[in-house]
Amino acid sequence: MFSHFAYIFNIEYTLFMRHMGIDYGSKRVGIAVSDEAGEFAMPLIVLNTSKNLVKEIEDIAKENKVVEMVMGESKNYKGEANAILPESMNLKKDLEEAGFTVHFEPEFMTSANAERFQGKNDMLDASAAALILQSYLDTNKNK
Q: Is the pLDDT of residue 85 over 80?
């Protein structure tokens, strides 16, 4: 009986996993989280880029029971790495060293698209993070 319960619990655990979306910027970092089923991305918060950024992201991830993170892979119009990509790669490395699984999701003009949908406001970067995360969730839905 106990092993049956554990089996059911493990299945439920694997079905309900929150993901975090990260839109990294040199001044601000947008954070989004998924619902527990990993189907919908929702803007959460905008953080200031600082030396405490990794710790702040860790705390938010733990509070929201995040199992994986998705960062925007920032490139220019030609599909080449832009100036911010090396900094975001450093953040990815730091988060991985903290024990998180972090994926890059190709992004292009997410902040501009978020602004087009909602207008310019304080949550713009978090909305861009939600677009990045939603793209990842949609692409990996059946995997």
A: yes
Give the list of residues 6+ apart from residue 37 with CB closer than 8 angstroms, or none: 15, 16
Residue 92 lies in a domain: yes
Q: Does residue 6 belong to any structural domain of this protein? A: no
Strand partners, 71: 22, 104
Q: What's 112's domain CATH number?
A: 3.30.420.140
**Block residue for tokens 């310019």:** 120
Please indicate, yes or no, if residue 3 is contained in any of the structural domains: no
pLDDT of 62 reads 95
Q: What is the pLDDT of residues 57-67, one digit of tens each?
A: 999 999 999 98
On whether the CB atoms of residues 104 and 133 are closer than 8 A, the answer is: no
Q: Shortest CA distance to 133 belongs to which of 55, 18, 45? A: 18
Number of domains in the chain: 1
Residue 115 DSSP one-character state? H
Contact yes or no for 125/72 (Cβ under 8 A): no
